[in-house]
Amino acid sequence: MPTKPIAITGMGAVTCAGAGVGPYWDALIRGRCCISSFDADPVEYPVRRAGIIRDFNPEEHMPKHLARDMDPFMQYAYAAAEEAMAKNGLDDLDPTRVGIVMATALAGIKQAGQTQADFAVSGKKVGPKYLTKVMGNMAAAYLAIEHGFLGPSLCVGTACASGGDAVMLASLLLDSGTADAVVVMAGEAAISGPLVQSLVRGGALSKTGESRPFDKNRNGFVAGEGGGALILEPEEKALARRADILARLTGTGNNTDGYNPVAPRPDGSGAARCFSMALRQAGLNPEDIDYINAHGTATEMGDIAEANALHLVFGEESEVPVSSVKGAVGHLMGAGGITELIACIKTLETGLLPPTVGCAEPDEACGLNVIPEGPPLEKPVRRVMSNALGFGGQNSSIIIESPDL
After folding, report:
1. What is the mean pLDDT of the chain?
2. Is the pLDDT score of 1 beyond 80?
């Protein structure tokens, strides 16, 4: 456990289910798939289904000038951060002691590609805001400028583990006394022709546009857009300012497989070491975990490798419930580690464990106690583990517990 108990006092989300934690959680527990088709050139986009965000008006979540100056991935992160801060606020804290950690895997890759194409094909001049629309750290910069935050500001880009790693980095800032509160925010809006083509040719993306984590008929992941945010602060300081505590962060893990640029270690040993690291830091045994939010991307190799990792840590006969939310909202890349941890917080709060949308026939080769599509599982939950695994062999694991413990 971190030297100082760390509280989570705010959360916010923007997903294809809608803006806000409410619509997101409602979709998860109802087992609703929010992935949809979109119109595009079939040559440029060989797959035309994704967790696309629709009907999002950024001016409802931020000043007009910010909406104009930010790329969508920044808008989603910023809107989520505003929702996270709305509950308890941070205005009563010393602004030099409020930090920000931003997470994104792909940042402004879509904006960069479109700008390059416009310049190369039609000679369209590049505007003065181009650079600040593609840089990964700028959502954090705009949040700091708007709210007057003057503390540490960092940006994490560890592929699909970025969100979880951002939480870990925030905990280190708090544990070291570098900050009194940290806004952890993340955003992705990278669905573009080049990205889709690359993922299809690499065998990672579902060619049918169907996300089926841990299902025996899975055939790849479905990309998603969105953003998430959490507020972390030392529990002692949160209680002193009478902030509502949603959950307590008890353990974090991070390591690398050191194996392959895109494929996980087949035996899951790298991820297993990461999960064990989080358990050790939390001072827990595997049987203390009541629910696992798996990375569960629905790739054939990825789900097997993750299952192998869980077996190495929890045992072949473990009955701990496991589910993945990616069948409902798609794979949010660098933002998923945050939005999925939000699902875990809601699980602690409600005792409802979200089903795995798209998992109609759990793959026996995975051998996990997967919550299949259908109604949520109801059971008392005290402690949960949320895992995120990324390209480059990135592994992240986060453990949180009920604030009532």
Report:
1. 96
2. no
Residue 251: the pLDDT is: 97
pLDDT at residue 120, rounded to an integer: 86
pLDDT tens digits for range 338-375: 999 999 999 999 999 999 999 999 999 999 999 999 99
* Phi, psi for residue 177 in degrees, rounded to 5: 80, 15
Active site positions, annotated: 160, 295, 331
